[in-house]
Every structure is written in C-alpha cells, then in structure tokens.
Amino acid sequence: MYHLHQAVGILGGTFDPIHFGHLRMALELHNAMDLAEVRFVPCYQPVHRKLPSASPEQRLAMVKKAIATEPHFHVDAQEIRRKDPSFMIDTLIELRKELTNTPLCLLLGIDAFLHFSSWHRWEEIINLSHLIVAHRPQYQLPHTGIIADLVKERLQTEVSAIYTSLGGYILLHPVTSLDISATDIRKQIAMGKNPRYLLPESVYDYIQQQGIYSITRV
Ligand code: ATP
Known about the structure:
Elements: E1 8-13, H1 20-33, E2 37-42, H2 56-67, E3 73-75, H3 78-82, H4 88-98, E4 104-109, H5 110-113, H6 122-128, E5 130-135, H7 146-154, E6 170-174, H8 182-190, H9 201-210
Parallel strand pairs: 1-2, 1-4, 2-3, 4-5, 5-6
The structure holds adenosine-5'-triphosphate.
Adenosine-5'-triphosphate binds near residues 15, 108, 109 and 111.
C-alpha cells in the first residue's frame, strides 16, 4: 500500500490517575514506532472493571495536565463525550473516519493484551489497527489459546510492518519496567502516604486540590 501517513498511537485507559508507567510507555513506543503522535483516550466507564474513583471530568483533567508539556501527546475525549460504556471498537471506528490513510497503533501493556480476546468485537479491533504490546519481563505470553494463536498469526518483528497496512499486525516491544499502578497510587493516597515521583507533580497537585482518593472513595 502506498502513501500511508505517519502512524498514530492510541492509548486507552481509565487513568484513575494517569502515572509515569503510562507516560513512559507512551513515549518509548512513540519513539520506537516513529509515531506522529499518541492520543490518550480516557474511558467514560470501563467495561471490565469496577467504576473509577475519580469522575470522568477529573480523569480527563489529570490526563491533560500530565501531557501538557509533551508536544506529541494529545488527549481525545470522545469516550467521555459519548457518555456510554466505553468500547475501543467504537473509538477506533471514529478515529478511522478522521485518519483515513493512517496506520493506527493501539498501544497496550502486556497485562491488558493477555485479556484482549475478552474485548468487545476484538477481531474487528485487530483489523482496524495494529496492536503494539509493551512487554514487561514479569509477564509471559501463553503457549496455547486464542491469544497464542493470534500472536502466531499476526506477529511481526520489524517496525516497518506497520507501514505495509492500516492495521492487522501485532508487535511486541520491550519498555522500561516501571512497576507503578493506579490502584497502588489510590491506596497510598487513601492511607495518607505521599505518592510523589510515581506520577507528575501537576497531577498530584490536582488530586490534592480536588480531594480525590480520600479514604472513603478508593
Ligand atoms: P489500575 O491499577 O486502576 O487497574 P492501571 O495503572 O493499570 O490502572 P489503566 O488505566 O488501567 O492503568 O491502564 C491503561 C493502559 O496502560 C493499559 O494498556 C495498561 O496495560 C497500561 N499500563 C498500566 N500501568 C502500566 C505500567 N506501569 N507500565 C506500562 N504500561 C502500563
């Protein structure tokens, strides 16, 4: 296929709150895949987990603050605007309307990829976008099952593969392992501990100012 535009990365998440694990992964994959930009897509209401502690507007505000200084990072608030349970397939269909000739790269941590076959209309997702899986050493890919078959069928080792089609391939890429989770940050704040250096200062200032993650809300 000729004349494809520079690929765009999409990082969906609850971002309750956004932290350096998300940001570092996005930056390393942005650089490794030579992406034009990474769009952070905070979900309105996650489908596979309990309701977030912070409101959609607060999670959106935290993402905006976290990416404010990085010119290649943008936020896409479409899932929050839709106010429906958030399905990645709907988001990709919307993005594809705008980015007609652009390979889309869905960025996801390996923990999320291991559950990919439970995502709504996952077969369509993998045809609409490439999956760029941020590999972390403590996680292993399965040897059998749907995910194993998908990897066997779609895995590419060369980054240039993302420019041979608009979607459809899987790339595994190692990223610096930062063992940070939003769950742990929420717990720390609820216990009155200081989560500094796990997330951007501007995000922690906002959390304090808004009183998010106090003990009653975790
Ligand atoms: P929670 O602890 O509330 O489940 P989380 O920290 O895992 O949240 P999510 O918003 O659920 O964050 O994750 C969004 C995406 O970021 C997923 O693809 C996930 O795999 C990835 N991710 C989360 N934490 C890290 C991390 N420390 N390093 C790399 N990727 C991460």
